[in-house]
Amino acid sequence: MSNLPAPLAALAVRAITYPAKFQPVEKTAAEELARLTGGTARPATRPGAGVNVALAPRDWAKSLPKSKANKPGWMWLKIAENGTGEIVADTGALLYAAVRLLANGLPDAARAKLDRGLFLPITFPWHRPHWDSCLTQYWRTARKFDPEQYVATLAESGFTHVEVNGLQAHMPIEDTVVSEYYPQFYTYCAGFNHFVDTPLTRGLWPVQYLEANLNNLKKLARLGQRYGLKPGLCMFEPRSMPERLFQRNPTLRGARVDHPFRSRLPRYCLAQDHPVTKQHYRAAIQGLLKAAPELSYMSVWTNDSGAGFEHTGSLYVGRNGGPYMIREWRNHEKIAQAAGESIVRYLHNLQSSAAELNPDFDVILRIEPFKLEQDHIKAGMGGHITWEAPSLLVRGYDMPYYHPRYADIKGVAGSPFQSKIDESERTILKESLAHNTDPILNYAAGSTSSFEPLLGIPYARRLHEKLISMRDLGLKRIGALGGLGNTPQTPYWPNPAIIRAVQFTPQLSVDEILLQTARGFVGDKHAASLVACWDDFEEALSWQPPVMLFSGFGFTWQRTFDRPYVPDIEAIPVKERAYYERFGCFQHNNPGLNDLGKDVLFDLVTREQGTKATGYFDRNVFPRLTKLLARLEKLSAQTAAEPSVQTVFNDLLDRARAFRIWCGSLRMVTAWVSHVYGYLDAKKAVEKKHHEKLLQAAIDQELANTQDLIALLEGGRTEVMALSNVGNNTFIYGEDLPDLLREKIRLMKQYRHKKPRIDREILWRPVPGSSWPQFD
To answer: Per residue in 583-597, pLDDT tens?
Structure first.
């Protein structure tokens, strides 16, 4: 009996040939085909007698319909019953994906055409993971993560690019002062200064640190090439420079770019129009390309996390900058024009410098920060300089699109809650293309910025609808925010199958894709049940109300799982709160320390919003999850005699449990705001008593919720969330989370009966260890 995958057992492939002077992916694809078929792969100077695997424009596909292969993004598969044939693609990742399609994802109707030849144009010729959480960004220390398996999954799923500028270390090296949080913002989208130095910055960062990070970048770039993915960068730039550089070169000082509430050390970028600054960035981008010539793009994120452009309106401290761009007494429009045109010069400097080594290098600007400067920036773009956004309608940080279930919640563009694209985006796309600028639309594929730190959350139908909407709009360049997470630990997650199908076999309906995927996981007998559970999960998810900051990237930095929820947070002594506060995005005078509805000067959750969201969870989310959990538990019991099938249902059961717990902690946040604020606003004793009673009930629920999380984590059956094997930081929990949760429970029980209280004067507190002078 054959041990080969069922779809390949009928193929009599024995000999596989790839070019002697091969691209890395040609060897990878040929060896993968050999592994799948039991054949033997060998290099040769010309096509062999078996199956030939090669990239175009090599003339290794004698029967390729060349009239069809005149647009970028295609694969050609032809395998006869006698084991001869050819697999060719015009893009490296598509060559590997073509081989993987033979084993997984090719529908029966297409498979029947293999002996005659199957030409597959892809839907999105330019498709990258963006802000890749586990590979390069703040989950890069996630345990049980296998970079090679992940990169192979990207290629198999239809991605064409891979992000590679991840730091080697758990945290970055940046100048700081005592009691400051700010350097942690440099751990993601690491900029030039963390990989290469130039004559301007030499000696500012340790050479050992730079070498380690650069070696990691080169390693990831080589790994991407092995699977045909084009490597690129996602950087916050222009990033700040150490103050000692400006003490030495004061006329290079540009804009202050830090957040003045979160930082304790003012941070400035270089004056971007200064000739020395231009030379520095020229040297920096060329330094990276010389180290990793495969680099193909750079995505510029900015005006946040210690980066920013001079005199732009969205800088945290307002418009400011060096002396070379704006003279005195210019009106706002003139300043916006000057700032926008300067940004364009910066982007052109990067692209032209990179083009000397790679003429096709793309420079991409995240456009959201530039509400006032946007038109001036777009006017200077074109060719290999373009822009990206979660919606083409974006103008500033005010996101379009309403929640599909709640007409009072706006701003879900680019998230899993936005599955349709408004027709008005087509106009902007046409205008941009007419200007020779091909924009990139970013979409949600996993849990990044939506369900952090959970893994493997299924929303296959919404994802399919979004991808089809992007195709129908005419988009050719797209980016998956967060990438695919920790794919080695989410083997039964349907989202990658959806992405792959829309990319390679878009004629399939979402029902066909899901049923085919489920059959691959649990067989024909249980496939319909698995699809129904995915649908039930997605239905419950679609009713989840977003909670500003907490339900996105801020879930972990607010320590939402492990912080104790009590009526008076500061009734807990400072030393006892330190176990979670030291890892959160907290400052000693941040209202978020003692008030869950606030963060710095933001009103995150109002009393009204808290009350509404709590009701939404209770009425719309939890009943649906309760039914789903019961259904999955029953299926787990029914499939006990089929361990491989039971494993799949147990995996989904654990992820549903994790999502229920995650929603439970969000519900605790909204209930706390509703009832602590309600108590403090109440004028009558009966009203205060009412809010105290409901707050205590919420605390009871969260205590039980936390016990469930401890049991889930310590059960160890499924990796339901990103956990670091190095340690805690603001963006990821460590493996000691169960211990932190036990401390949370202890403190909640000890301090739960204090009266609700918030010290509104926290803003004015001195730094710990100091005091304000006494005035007469």
So the answer is: 999 889 999 999 999
> What pLDDT, on a 0 to 100 scale, did the predictor assign at position 1?
32
Residue 153 corresponds to which tokens in the numbers above? 């999954």
Half-sphere exposure of 626 (CA within 13 A, CB side): 8
- Say which DSSP state 729 is in: B
Both structure tokens of 385:
């300089």
Distance CA 645, CA 718 (A): 15
Give the burial string for 331-349 (b: 16+ CB within 10 Å, else e): eeeebbbbbbbbbbebbbb
Q: What is the pLDDT of residue 349?
A: 98
Q: Would you say the pTM of this structure is higher than 0.85?
A: yes
Q: What gap in Å lies between CA 487 and CA 134, rounded to an integer?
A: 9
Contacts of 641 (CB under 8 A, 6+ apart): none
Helix axes 737-751, 574-581, angle to 10 degrees: 150
**Closest residue by Cα to residue 63 from 50, 79, 48:** 79
- pLDDT of 6 reads 55
Residues found in the chain = 776
Cβ atoms < 10 Å from Cβ of 368: 25
Alpha helices in 356-402 (DSSP H): 374-379
Sequence-distant (6+) residues with CB within 8 A of 693 are none
Map tokens 């889930």 to a residue.
712
* E strands in 158-296: 161-163, 230-236, 253-256, 268-270
> Cα angle at 617 between 616 and 621, to 5 degrees?
105
Question: Which burial class, exposed, middle or buried, applies to 685 when counting CB atoms under 10 A from its CB (0-12, 13-18, 19+)?
Answer: exposed
> Cis omega before residue 57 (within 30°)?
yes
Question: Contact at 8 Å (CB) between 501 and 105?
Answer: yes
Q: Is 609 within 8 Å of 602 (Cβ atoms)?
A: no
Q: What is the pLDDT of residue 414?
A: 97
Contact call for residues 534 and 514 (beta carbons, < 8 A): yes
Confidence (pLDDT) at 2: 45
Q: What share of the chain is helix, strand, coil (3-state, %, to 5)?
A: 45, 10, 45
Query: What is the sign of the dihedral through the CA atoms of 11, 15, 19 and 23?
Result: positive
Q: Amino acid identity, residue 185?
A: F
Closest CA relative to residue 483, chosen from 215, 764, 186, 150? 150
761: three-class secondary structure by DSSP: helix
Count Cα neighbours of 412 within 13 Å in the Cβ-side half-sphere. 25
SS3 assignment, position 478: strand
> For 366-370, what is the mean pLDDT?
97
Instruction: Please name the residues in contact with 448: beta carbons below 8 A apart, sequence gap of 6 or more.
Output: 131, 133, 481, 482, 483, 485, 553
Cβ pair 319, 252 in contact under 8 A: no
Q: Report the alpha-carbon distance of residue 446 to residue 133 in Å, rounded.
A: 10
Encoded tokens for 81: 């019953």
pLDDT of 678-712, one tens digit each? 999 999 999 999 999 999 999 999 999 999 999 99
- pLDDT tens digit sequence for 431-490: 999 999 999 999 999 999 999 999 999 999 999 999 999 999 999 999 999 999 999 999
Q: Is 533 exposed, middle or buried (0-12, 13-18, 19+ CB in 10 A)?
A: buried
Work out the average pLDDT over 276-295.
Answer: 98
